[in-house]
Amino acid sequence: MQVAVCGDGGVALLYLQGMSKERYPGATWAPLPESGTHGTYTKTQLIFHSTGTTASASANRRYFASSNVDVESTLIVDYDGGCLQIMEASEKADANTTASRRAISVEVVGTADEPYTAAQVARCKDIAKWACENHPIARRQCPAHDESGLGWHVMFGAPGPWTTVSGKECPGPKRIVQVRDVIIPSVRLSSSLTPAPTQEDTDMAFITRGSGNTQYLTDLLTTKRWIRNGTALTALKADGIRELLGAEYDSVLAGLASGPDIL
Ligand SMILES: [Zn+2]
Asked: How far is the CA of 188 from the centre of ligand 1 (A)?
């Protein structure tokens, strides 16, 4: 992984967020030969599947990598919760017919007549949480085939908008219940009870807590991160900041006021 070294905390932060957006941190990156050639799109849906066999994630990756196979998913989850990522998250993955451009696609090892294992359910919950945090995917069951949210392959019929195969069961009756009643609700729950803090939330919490670490605070206020998101001046005017920064306050304020991105 390359690290941006440019003396600008804001740029470095955005770079790292970009990596997290394209690569699920819990997966081993094992790109298909066609990775990088399918085009990138805004992902507004997450769709769960079954591989249909008991073969491992690695075996499924080899199948998708075959020169005569032109379908694939974004991620493949093994029985034990191990996970391979074979395409960048924003790249088109050909698994969902009309939704292939807008959906992150998750293959889960196993047949359509068995449930996901506990390890697979845990992994799918974590993937769903990551996907909703890093892509504009609504934390809900898709209300329609072309609306944002989470779903499963045959959710809108077989054949239907997400599959051309008549009678397809993917991911299978027991697994559909798990997606609908366990995995999707876990994302809604994580949203309502423990919203993921943004960097701005974290920094603002630091300031309102009144920590005496003036060096950290000065660093925060003088990185372009604060100027760009429009909160630097607000932060400077918060109660106690002048006292906290002491003699540094005027110079920090002057530095911000002369910055090119302010106002
Ligand atoms: Zn499927």
From this structure: 23
